[in-house]
Write a structure and sequence with these properties.
Blueprint lengths: L16 H30 L10 H84 L13 H12 L4 E2 L8 E2 L1 H10 L9 H4 L4 E3 L9 E4 L7 E7 L2 E7 L3 E6 L7 E4 L2
Parallel strand pairs: 1-2
Antiparallel strand pairs: 3-8, 4-5, 4-8, 5-6, 6-7
Helix pairs in contact: 3-4
């Protein structure tokens, strides 16, 4: 025995049986609980549990909305692409139209220039021809006498006498006598005196007979101004380089030398 065993304050107090029993009970309960948990864990480990999760209905709606949004985006992109292609085609067409218009304008300008040059050439040729005719006429009538003589006979004499008798009468457009005439009205009425029916207007009278040279005129020949078939004035050659015609409202019917207003040509119907 320890030498301090008899000292009361140094001895450990004994535990009561009830206290030991309670502790043993608690320990047993804990061990039982662990045993049950272990058994449960073993059972769970041996048999895996399969669980089925159901997505909420809201998830399906979101998926549908996402799909619709994707479709809308794709359609918008397709629309933008189509519009871009249309814009590009329109721009190309506008550019081509502009080029075609410019080319058409150039061709039109070239055609107009060519036509003007051709008209100028023809006009120059016509002026040269008229000048040549007038030069010849001046040379042949310088003495006031036609190369074919100045004495009218037969029907020609009657035509010359008639037109000379009308000198001094008024010029009225459309008139055919007896107090007034226009140029073709005087010629038509004069030839009517000898039984010859002439067209009414100067254009037709300039082709009513045989074309004759101005250097070979005879009394009674019809003189015309302008082109044959498009004449704008007519008169009657009366010989000696003179003609009688209804000139205009200011001068009326009068007799003038060929140099007063040189004619373009002449026709013979007698």
């Amino acid at each position: 025995m320890s030498h301090t065993a008899h000292i009361r304050s140094h001895r450990k107090p004994r535990r009561s049986a009830s206290s030991l029993a309670m502790r043993a009970g608690v320990a047993g309960g804990v061990l039982s609980t662990l045993a049950v948990a272990g058994a449960s864990g073993s059972a769970n480990a041996a048999e895996p549990v399969t669980q089925t999760l159901e997505l909420p209905t809201l998830t399906a709606d979101l998926a549908a909305q996402a799909a619709q949004s994707a479709d809308a985006t794709q359609q918008a992109a397709a629309n933008y692409q189509l519009q871009a292609e249309r814009d590009a085609a329109a721009a190309k067409a506008a550019k081509q139209a502009k080029a075609d218009l410019a080319e058409a304008k150039q061709k039109a300008a070239a055609a107009k220039k060519k036509a003007e040059e051709e008209a100028a050439r023809k006009a120059a040729a016509a002026r040269a021809s008229r000048n040549a005719e007038r030069t010849t006429l001046a040379a042949t009538t310088g003495s006031g006498v036609s190369t074919s003589g100045s004495t009218a006979t037969g029907s020609a004499a009657a035509v010359v006498a008639f037109v000379k008798a009308q000198i001094g009468k008024a010029y009225v457009s459309g008139a055919t006598g007896p107090s007034a005439y226009d140029c073709s009205g005087l010629v038509q009425t004069a030839f009517k005196q000898v039984g010859i029916s002439l067209p009414r207007v100067s254009q037709d009278q300039s082709t009513a007979g045989t074309q004759v040279s101005l250097s070979n005129l005879q009394p009674g020949d019809i003189l015309y101004w302008g082109g044959a078939g498009s004449a704008y004035h007519v008169a009657v050659y009366v010989g000696d380089g003179m003609f009688v015609g209804a000139q205009n409202p200011s001068s009326g019917v009068g007799e003038h030398p060929l140099s007063y207003d040189p004619p373009s040509g002449a026709v013979r119907v007698l």
